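Attaching the record inline, Q. Sequence:
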Amino acid sequence: MSRGVCRAAAVALTGLAGTTVMVEAAVSRQLPGMAIIGLPDAALAEAKQRVRTAAAQAGLPLSERFVVVNLAPAALPKQGSGFDLAIALAALAASRQLPTAKLADTAHIGELGLDGGLRRPAGLLSTVIAARDLGFARVLVPSEAATEARLVPDIEVVEAASLGAAVSWHRNEAGDWSDTGDSPTHQGRGAPSAALGPPDASAAARTETVDMSEIIGQEEAVEAMVVAAAGRHHISLVGPPGSGKTLLATRLATILPDLSPHESLVASSIASLSGSSLHSLVRRPPFESPHHTASSAAIVGSGDARGIRPGAISRASYGVLFMDEAPEFGRVVLDDLREPLEAGTITISRAKLHAVLPAKLQLVLAANPCPCGNAGAPETAFACTCSPNTRMRYLGRLSGPLNDRIDLRLNVRRVSSVLLTSAAAENPVSSGVTSAQLRTRVERARERARVRLADTPWNFNGEVPGDWLRSTTMRLPTATTAAIDRALAHGGLTLRGYDRILRIAWSIADLAEVPRPGRSEVAQALTMRGVS
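Structure, as predicted:
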């Protein structure tokens, strides 16, 4: 005997955005079988074989009639095996194997094995966050992913090791169904908003093994990195091989403050969507360093019938994207960075998919001054063999519009042997200032900016638009901006470059703990911008 239409709730992801999917199941008078409709992809269409076999293995056979499963809304493409659990429970409810009381208000997430066991689907953390944002008070997840699901605050997490355990939980909730002996192992609510767990182990290991104190003889470069960290500014490093460009870039993340609760959830969600299984939230800023042979899809992200895959731009959100040997990247790849750097988001559009992913990152570009690397480096024993045209073409691979979006442009020189010997004599290990000390300066500067920007949509100096900085209340005195006014008037600066110098000057002022930038801060910003 069968019921009418039974519904179990699930969540479909498009990027990080979720949509409630009602899995509807009904039994009709046809030959035994199952059909899944509602734009499933190949993996989801195969769920009918997994569901029938898993249900039989759990001692919960489906109806011997034809079972039709509809994934509503039918016009939304659905991907992946994460719908298996909802499909199985809806089909079992239609076959009168369990009650329907909690099916529609619990988000069901899980892939079925042929033995009836539940497995973690890709993007589980992202799906749990989406379920909470859609208004679900409860999610049912595989036991192996329960720790990850509980990282999301303000939503109850029920774990089940198998399809039988999930059925037992629904029966016990209703109160009139006997226990099958295969019960859920634990249930509880996710962590409160203020307790986000320990830092992600891999990120912690990466940042603990390096320190800014290892950099010797590059005080100006280190200070520029501190300014970049304080205002979340983009920075480019140009210098010969061995000058410390990579050393500086890889240590930028060590002086950034821990992620805020919101940033931590977003960064963790992106990591989950990228395929990582998390046991703790990402608390330290991520660091991405793609190879220069990376494709445009690898950098900006891609999408097809199997779903959205975040690129390096999104994986570096609230952290650092380091592109070493920047001129060696493809021209299209470099120009793809322009819009995300301005907007803070990356839009991936395909014929049937449209997703917006975060791209709130700090970009660090590193480049040699020419193909041979020796241009402008008198300390080397080898003279530059590149012609002036070759040098111009090489750095010209970084387009003008992209360069204009880089706040700080730093020329890095090799450390001389005399300086190295002198530093080593005083301290053979480090140059003195540690990442922890610099991070404290950055945190204080960011707090000053946060107070100033409290009534605005922005949190960092690097995000503030120029028209606000040039407004009546924020405009600096003419005597203070005289140098950049002249550079703008004579074509040495674009208006975007002018505004970026103002942003840098405010970050320098915040680090110096002065209320407003003065002439010295503007002059320093002009130098860091690479304008003489």
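Residues 435-452 form the longest helix (18 residues). Residues 81 and 199 are 29 Å apart (CA to CA).

More tomorrow.
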